[in-house]
Design a protein that fits this description.
Elements (H helix, E strand, L loop, with lengths): L10 H11 L3 H8 L9 H17 L5 H8 L11 H32 L3 H12 L15 H11 L2 E2 L4 H6 L4 E2 L4 E5 L5 H14 L4 E5 L4 H13 L10 H13 L4 E5 L6 H15 L5 E5 L16 H19 L2 E7 L20 H5 L2 E6 L2 H6 L1 E9 L8 E6 L6 E3 L4 H20 L15 H24 L2
Parallel strand pairs: 3-7, 3-8, 4-5, 4-6, 6-7
Antiparallel strand pairs: 1-2, 8-9, 9-10, 10-11
Helix pairs in contact: 1-3, 3-4, 5-6, 9-10, 10-11, 16-17
Length: about 475
């Protein structure tokens, strides 16, 4: 369809808009969603206002005689018109409304900019450029169920988490454009979960951006070193050559993994700006955005006290979800559990720090449960507190945690793993029995050295046990 190149919306063309709207009620109703009488020329504002109010009150269009008599306007009936003329009007009026709204936003923004209030200016401009008529009529449910279901299956943007046991509960994984939150108490492993997800997705060939507002870039990178190379964090510096070789080799076959530190107090707009700068300079599109963590961000523009966690988190979570949808990216962040969750073994919405605001916005909220005994056994449990796209609410998933490499994996439940686990238990019990001093042996009964010998022997046996188990795990 041809469109006017001249964007000077003068009196004459605006008069044509109103005259055409007066001839077709359906067209005016479609335009009414973006209709604002203040956008019109001053000579037409009274007529535009009268038209909008008349239709709203009487559910019918006024006649030309009525509107001209009431507003002293000089509108004329354009006569019989074809359907494609109204198509032209819809396209024209949409552009006119958007441009006028943008013009108004720029004029209002000038005063705000002088005061240094950039957030409200951005909101005004964003709302203006998003103005448009509703063209999507939705889904005709009865029409083609097979095509509808196949489209959902193929194009819903689901991305596996790398943990099959969690994917099953989420009907395939996380969707692009969603807000996914891992919630845990202090030291529960929120950062470890985000880093493990980042490694899973990078190894799958996706471009990952990890923004940390708490830990340093170096610490996060060292953790990822262990996860990628299977070399313990305490042995990284002893094996720098091996780490370098493995990281470079694996990196050649993987997606990008960018780690960036941002100080707490940054806003979603700061995140947006960094991502645009990164994509321009590298030529890469971000597939996965990980933010560690949501509670340390502040909302765009809105002046909210940091103590008012409910409102702050409401704004931040909504803005982050909008950012994820805008970027069409997989987005995962973390949130703090409050003190009430410390002694609990099952989490609910009341345990989220800041209240329900972030939960109401989030698509998936997953609680992280662990204990000292569980970590020693190499276990984590995650609890699905909210899922919007699946029926997994309340489900629990046990995962395996390698304390040396910091890798979190699916808990193996096959026969081979169970047999291996039994072997470890048997070996441990056997060595533990051997570590008990034999008081029947005179050599072990030295009253001055018995305790020391026992400790040395126990430490030696513990080292043997660890080495033996590690050797078994590498078989």
């Amino acid at each position: 369809m041809a469109t006017r190149q001249n964007t000077d919306y003068g009196y004459d063309i605006q008069k044509v808009y109103l005259e055409m709207m007066l001839t077709d009620a359906e067209t005016f109703v479609r335009c009414q969603t973006v209709f604002d009488h203040t956008m019109f020329d001053r000579r037409l504002q009274d007529a535009a206002k009268f038209l909008n109010e008349y239709v709203t009150e009487h559910n019918a269009l006024p006649t030309f005689e009525i509107i001209n008599a009431a507003t002293k306007a000089d509108l004329a009936d354009p006569g019989q018109m074809q359907e494609n003329h109204y198509d032209w009007l819809l396209a024209e009026f949409e552009t006119f409304s958007r441009h006028k709204a943008l013009e108004s936003a720029i004029l209002k923004g000038a005063d705000l900019l002088e005061k240094g209030e950039y957030g409200p200016v951005e909101d005004l401009v964003k709302k203006a450029v998003q103005i448009g008529l509703q063209k999507d009529l939705g889904t005709d449910y009865w029409r083609d169920p097979r095509a509808r279901l196949e489209a959902i299956k193929d194009n819903n943007g689901q991305v596996t988490t790398g943990w099959e046991s969690l994917d099953k509960k989420l009907f395939g994984g996380f969707n692009r454009g969603e807000l996914n939150i891992f919630a845990g108490g202090s030291g529960a492993g929120k950062s470890l979960f985000l880093a493990n997800l980042g490694v899973n997705w990078a190894l799958a060939g996706m471009n990952v951006l990890y923004l940390t507002l708490e830990l340093s870039e170096n610490l996060v990178s060292m953790r990822v070193d262990s996860m990628v190379t299977d070399i313990s964090t305490r042995d990284i510096f002893k094996n720098i050559d091996d780490v370098e070789m493995k990281v470079k080799m694996i990196g050649k076959k993987s997606g990008a993994f960018q780690v960036k530190y941002m100080p707490s107090g940054k806003t979603p707009n700061d995140v947006r700006s960094y991502i645009k700068e990164y994509e321009i300079k590298t030529g890469r599109k971000i597939d996965v955005l990980l933010i560690d963590y949501l509670d340390l961000l502040m909302p765009n523009g809105a002046k909210v006290s940091a103590e008012n966690l409910f409102i702050k988190d409401k704004y931040v979570s909504e803005e982050l979800r909008n950012l994820a949808m805008e970027l069409n990216t997989v987005f995962v962040t973390a949130a703090q559990l409050n003190r009430g969750a410390v002694e609990e073994i099952e989490f609910d919405h009341s345990h989220i720090s800041g209240g329900l605001s972030k939960i109401q916005t989030a698509d998936n909220v997953i609680g992280i449960f662990t204990s000292r005994a569980m970590r020693e056994r190499g276990r984590y449990q995650i609890q699905l507190m909210k899922t919007r796209s699946s029926s997994g609410v309340g489900a629990k998933v046990d995962l395996e945690f390698d304390v040396d490499s910091l890798r979190i994996r699916d808990l193996a439940d096959d026969e081979e793993y169970q047999e291996f686990d039994k072997r470890k238990s048997t070996i441990y019990d056997s060595l533990k029995r051997q570590s008990v001093p034999n008081t029947d042996n005179p050599e072990d009964a030295d009253p001055t050295q018995g305790d020391t010998v026992g400790k040395i022997k126990a430490e030696a046996d513990s080292t043997k046990l660890r080495n033996f188990i590690n050797n078994l795990g590498s078989e």
